[in-house]
């Protein structure tokens, strides 16, 4: 029996691809982070950032939080902040899907929508300006060590255990980079030969949740030495693979998960005798108002 919804964060399923990757000797597994209570991998980081800040005394129950987000982190922070009784203001581009905005508000968060022309960078600038006014505390997922440490403490150990220590390659989309940084740190300690593969969009692609950051906005938690290889995917690959995951594997996921899976499949085609794990970071119902699943 669980005492709190927080107890349901983590320990997500790892399922084997039976349709999209059938190459003999190569096993591809998807880690279903949409099974977290808030619906995404970001529940892990949101909980660790808020709980650690409370434990250290960086924030109290009367602190007003503010954070820029492209979606999933905001939903997770709204959920965790509500559980701890904290006020939170979330800032995101106005072209974010309505499902995300409404979910954040359902958890009790205030949502500010910024000009879509300046994207998540503009949302980050807005949040930083409000923080600098002195009235807000910003968790700063892009520079918060508790972001990647959440995955060092949970995601990495789960994958290591559930693959019976046989994982050879880990594939993850890169946004704030917390997932790949923390998981890489843990897996490399267990076996330095494990290859860590980050996924970025091509220069002309717009894939929610995956970014190729301008240098001035590169997350400070990112350490390039922890990523052995970067693979690029375009919008068409991400969309087609997200649809294929749903149709053929029964895995309903978003566009960034489709991008990671597309890269993982291409990687598997190069390999012999490998165990590959790809992160499915959220659920597809966050994208039903978008064109992702329209045909």
From TrEMBL:
Top EC class of this enzyme: transferase
SUPFAM superfamilies: Tryptophan synthase beta subunit-like PLP-dependent enzymes (SSF53686)
Keyword Transferase attributed: yes
GO molecular function, one term: cysteine synthase activity
Keywords: Amino-acid biosynthesis, Cysteine biosynthesis, Pyridoxal phosphate, Transferase
InterPro entries: Cys_synth (IPR005856), Cys_Synth/Cystath_Beta-Synth (IPR050214), CysM (IPR005858), P-phosphate_BS (IPR001216), TrpB-like_PALP (IPR001926), TrpB-like_PALP_sf (IPR036052)
Source organism, top-level taxon: Bacteria
Cofactors required: pyridoxal 5'-phosphate
PROSITE patterns per record: CYS_SYNTHASE
Entry EC number(s): 2.5.1.47
Pathway entry: Amino-acid biosynthesis; L-cysteine biosynthesis; L-cysteine from L-serine: step 2/2
Family as reported in the entry's similarity comment: Belongs to the cysteine synthase/cystathionine beta-synthase family.
Protein name, entry field: Cysteine synthase
Species assigned in the record: Christiangramia antarctica
Gene name of the encoded protein: cysM
